């Protein structure tokens, strides 16, 4: 990993507190993550020591109030931290993103005072990780239509049966709770009965919850992703998160916020490609010159820098609208779409600049190339983002 620092952020847009945080996480990423993450990645091993240090730094508590052990910051602070981590490695960044926006945030947004008091202090400290069990193997982007997991109220307990796929942070040694979306009944709809989806908190280790072995993945190899199965898994009725039947609507709200965070991760990867390519272009020589002297390389890096900058402005704008209490669904979808495209394009170009070395996992751009594709899929595919943008522009939904 190179140690070159690119002053890529438009500093006038950051408050003193945000800029201090950004610099702190940038230094942490280069000092604590960059030297060791490649070995974790090669071994497909979860980086517990790095996660512990991230917890000590307060990163898991960034957007939460101090009363729950948080740092009292905002969602934009989380995004800045995610971008700086992702400039170095995406596995670490997505571990933080999923733990905060998918694990802890639903409990903070929709939990009862008792649920918040029980779970948030450990989640915001990084002592415990949370996960959200939404996706199912047959569902994909059609979450309600593909959901088969059920939860039936039996006296004062929910009985859960079903499976979940591709669940981040669900099987680590410090995973503490999983919010599970399940069908809890039916409700009338314009075209007949429709599934009633609710969210239920399932503590790790609950009898009936089986955590599969880790997936063998193309990228994000130092993050934890697993399939979960529930067989007559019983939890107290009080573990219902939020209002019964509002589980999917609640998660759509969480997803809108999470798309800004995923955009920040994608921007970090895109910027990391610029950082690495700049350093390499100055030191690598071919035909008697540093390759950075050739216009073909200069143009490629210029395009990469422009993509990263544009995508950064997109997620900054979406975050600003969110924090101002304004509608931001369209802007979040645009940010996620633009940023994931930038990450994929920059990873491809950086790999080309590095040549054969770019195909080696020991170089960051090799990991960036493997990690970039999932950013166009996770937390809403690029196609879903285009659908959301079209609908927000007033175009009709598919009939």
Span between termini:
50 Å
**Approximate strand percentage:** 15-25%
Count of individual beta strands: 10
Counting helices, strands and paired strands, the structural category is alpha+beta
Domain Acyl-CoA oxidase/dehydrogenase middle: 131-233
Pfam family, one: Acyl-CoA_dh_1
InterPro entries: Acyl-CoA_DH_CS, Acyl-CoA_Oxase/DH_mid-dom, Acyl-CoA_Oxase/DH_mid-dom_sf, AcylCo_DH-like_C, AcylCo_DH/oxidase_C, AcylCoA_DH/ox_N, AcylCoA_DH/ox_N_sf, AcylCoA_DH/oxidase_NM_dom_sf
Keywords: FAD, Flavoprotein, Oxidoreductase
Describe the structure.
Belongs to the acyl-CoA dehydrogenase family. Its cofactor is FAD. InterPro entries: Acyl-CoA_DH_CS, Acyl-CoA_Oxase/DH_mid-dom, Acyl-CoA_Oxase/DH_mid-dom_sf, AcylCo_DH-like_C, AcylCo_DH/oxidase_C, AcylCoA_DH/ox_N, AcylCoA_DH/ox_N_sf, AcylCoA_DH/oxidase_NM_dom_sf. This is Butyryl-CoA dehydrogenase. The chain is 49% helix and 18% strand. It is an alpha+beta fold and 399 residues long. It folds into three domains: 119 residues, Acyl-CoA dehydrogenase/oxidase, N-terminal domain (Butyryl-Coa Dehydrogenase, subunit A, domain 1, Orthogonal Bundle); 117 residues, Butyryl-CoA Dehydrogenase, subunit A, domain 2 (Beta Barrel), CATH 2.40.110; 144 residues, Butyryl-CoA Dehydrogenase, subunit A, domain 3.
